[in-house]
Amino acid sequence: MHVTSLRHGSSSAEHHRTTAFEKVLLVDDHALFAQALAGLIRQEELALSVVTVGTLEAAADQLVHGTGVDLVLLDLALNGEAGLSLLPRLAGLRNTPPVVIISSSEDESTVRAVRTAGAAGFLAKSAGRAALVRMMQSVRRGQGYFPGGMPPLVSETPLTPRQLEVLTLLAQGFPNKRICQSLGLTEHTVKTHLKAIFTQLGVHNRTECVNRARALGWL
């Protein structure tokens, strides 16, 4: 874990206390990228403190046992883990911070999957300093941030939240085994969810499922 902070005694830190985030939790398993992004957030005075961790377990621990986290920046593809699987684990928190996904994949289907999962925003890793500032200012105002102005709303579907998680991972190309590992489910449970999703969509295979879900705006 690495912590980057503004000097709270400085006039600059005091000036930005009301407009900056109190504590940002940055979840990314690439240490150099994470440290560089944390440093940029500090330089732009967008947060008083940035805590960086490299795994979902470490992130969950910070959110459960730490205090003051009011924004999570979450890598979509952690080493062997699906970043989106952290979102359902936030439901039990007293104060759930907004989550913005950061990813090297920036195609439309990825952005839609992130939006459907309930994230507050999406930022491509190829984005520049200005985009980072706009994103954090927008999320700070409660407006969310998606490419093209896509609102951070979950499309209404007849699927359960867990089925939407399975569908999102399916759209990312995850085989059943990886879906099981990412969501902590048994293979039987994943197959049951997939069957229910296929039935709702009236499809017979994974490719038809993803294509139909995208056509309906579920992804």
Report on this structure:
- The structure is a single chain.
- This protein is α/β, with parallel strands linked by helices.
- The chain is 43% helix and 16% strand.
- It has nine helices and eight strands.
- It has a six-stranded mixed β-sheet, sandwiched between helices. Strands 5-6 form a two-stranded antiparallel sheet.
- Strand 5 (77-78) and strand 6 form a beta hairpin.
- It is globular.
Give the rounded overall mean pLDDT: 84
**Approximately how much beta-strand content do the residues carry?**
15-25%
Cα Rg: 18 Å
Portion of residues within helices: 40-55%
What is the gist of this entry?
This protein has 219 residues and is an alpha/beta fold. It has nine helices and eight strands. It is 43% helix and 16% strand.
SSE layout and pairing:
Elements lengths: L1 E4 L5 H6 L6 E5 L3 H13 L5 E5 L2 H10 L3 E7 L1 E2 L2 E2 L16 E5 L4 H9 L4 E4 L4 H12 L20 H11 L4 H8 L3 H15 L4 H10 L4
Parallel strand pairs: 2-3, 2-4, 4-7, 7-8
Antiparallel strand pairs: 1-3, 5-6
